[in-house]
Amino acid sequence: MFLFRSLTAVAALLIVFLLPTTPADASAPLRVHAASRGKFIGAALATTPLANESQYRTIAATEFSQVTAENAMKWDSTEPSQGQFNFSGADQIVTFATQNNQQVHGHTLVWHSQTPGWVQSLGATAMRSAMQNHISQVVGHYANNATVTSWDVVNEVFDDNGNMRTSFWYNTLGQSYIADAFRAARAADSNARLCINDYNVEGINAKSTAMYNLVSSLRQQGVPVDCVGFQGHLAIQYGFPGQVQQNMQRFADLGVQVRVTELDIRMIMPRDATKDATQATYYRDVVNACIAVTACAGITIWGFTDKYSWVPDTFSGQGAALIYDASYQQKPAYTAVHDALAGGTSTDTTPPTTPGTPAASNITANSATLTWTASTDSGGSGLAGYNVYREQGTTDPQLGQSSTASITLTGLSAATQYQVYVRARDGAGNLSGNSALATFTTTTGGSGGGPCTATGTVQTQWAGGYVVQPVTVTNTGSSAINGWTVTFTLPAGHTLSGSWNATLTSSGQTITAKSLGYNANLAPAASTTFGFQVSRPAGDTATPSGYTCASP
Ligand code: XIL
Questions:
Q1: For 302, phi and psi rounded to 5 degrees?
Q2: Residue whose CA is closest, atom 12 of ligand 1?
Q3: Which of 53, 156, 202, 391 is catalytic?
Q4: pLDDT digits (tens, 9 = 90+) for 218-227
Q5: Helix (H) / strand (E) containing 456
Q6: What is the distance between the alpha carbons of residues 239 and 461, in angstroms, rounded to a whole number?
Q7: Which helix (H) or strand (E) holds 293?
Q8: Centre of ligand 1 from the C-alpha of residue 436, in Å
């Protein structure tokens, strides 16, 4: 007996010491690594492949710890006609999740889309009670089910500019429907985490600030908003949103949980290795932002295989937004998510080769095109693109990024010498050496040029618009100026939707920005900034160009 007990103890000790010292095995599924970070990793699931394809079921069950119904819990599925509830698709998802020890995030209770016509045509009193009844029945159906832990109570209440979306909800009930929806959800389940969810709120911009202000004010009024969901429908051709981690953190500081609810990162088709590598860095950066913010509970990907994704049906000419290809093969994006969750232990530490010397062409007062010989990458993660820097001594500012071996730099200062170099980067973030320098001098501006310059930086952009912040106005003359006028051109079809720190007027596509009292005076070499926001046709990726500055 004694011998048996000590052998057991020795065996137990051996097991403890033989366990890997790393948090999780490098080849372990995503959910194992996510759990070691205290996060969930989720996927939106569709009922048809879940019922019919074993490969789909196996990956869904093995890799993910959280599940969202892509459509099965929306109003048109759960209450197609008034008072007639149907939970067949929703229950299928919840049962699958329970069997696989996963949590379900309920999506979504109150939305302007996928809501039956009968709801939309109700008058105010009837609409409010229909909303409260729907929430009470749907949330109530799962209130005692431990698998369903959270809900998107309202979805997409803002328009693209951060104003209240003028949906039938808003038009019939005013903004009060939002607080009423949260109160009804809390009444139906006192334990569920209640979220407000939206898109283009991942970085800091006008819309995410509107969301921030709304959540702050709702919570001050005691409305039970527990969580903010950032959908995360990104596109590599629009650039990575600015300040994602800082944005998550400012919401966290309001006392709410945050989460990425619908991550997918699309590209213009056809797919290629360079786009895959860029996409992988976007996935990695979203995961790293969530890991860096304690209040970020996890990340849900909107599907997992390119075989089933809403992207090609919704964004024409775009696709390949997910982490498995259409044949269920893992893409570089999978590796990026895996490695970021596993602790950034990328196996690729080999940088790409150094790019060739850039050659400058098409030099104007404020733009120039650079072209260079491409790099190659042998480390495994693939060539992701290039960063272009200006040689300035201590810190060299980055002038732009390109996924090809060429870039057109815009927003340059007139009559200025530039020395620039290029570095290649791979999917694991390794940077090559610096290319040799290219030197060029921009031409003297037109009649509007001097004694000041203006350069605009696109801070964040999405399908239907972008924010230019800062536009930096610099006195390049040798005496003080009192007043400045910056002009620039908006691409065709773009319209100004907001501005700050200057007075902006438009004439056709030409915008004139004039200084305000407090920022009119600039000593030699002094700078000030202003910013603006623009709406553009969905899918258009153009941004403004041709900034010129004059005084006053
Ligand atoms: C999408 C689904 O993926 C599609 O299958 C459906 O046809 C339309 O809705 N924001 C949301 C999700 O909150 O519910 C949307 O899902 C994608 C955008």
A1: -85, 75
A2: 70
A3: 156
A4: 999 999 999 9
A5: strand 452-462
A6: 7
A7: none
A8: 47
**Per-residue pLDDT for 317 more than 90?**
yes
Tens of pLDDT, residues 400-423: 878 889 998 988 888 889 999 999
Cα–Cα distance measured from residue 253 to residue 298, given in angstroms and rounded to the nearest whole number: 17
Token pair 């920005």: residue? 513
Answer yes or no: 156 catalytic: yes
Active site (annotated) includes residue 79: no
CA–CA distance, 160 with 462 (Å, rounded to integer): 9
Residue indicated by tokens 């170099």: 421
Cα 323 → chain centroid: 16
pLDDT tens for 463-479 read 899 999 999 999 888 88
Binding pocket residue ranges, ligand 1, CB within 6 Å? 70-71, 155, 231, 262, 310
Structure tokens at 230: 């950032």
Residue pair 157/178 in contact by the 8 Å Cβ criterion: yes
Please count the residues of the chain: 552
Sheet of 527-535: strand order equals: 452-462, 465-475, 527-535, 495-500
Contact 110, 153 (CB under 8 A): yes
Where in 129-280 does DSSP place strands (E)? 148-155, 193-198, 227-230, 233-235, 257-268
Higher-pLDDT residue of 386, 44 = 44
> How many C-beta atoms surround the C-beta of residue 99 within 10 A?
10
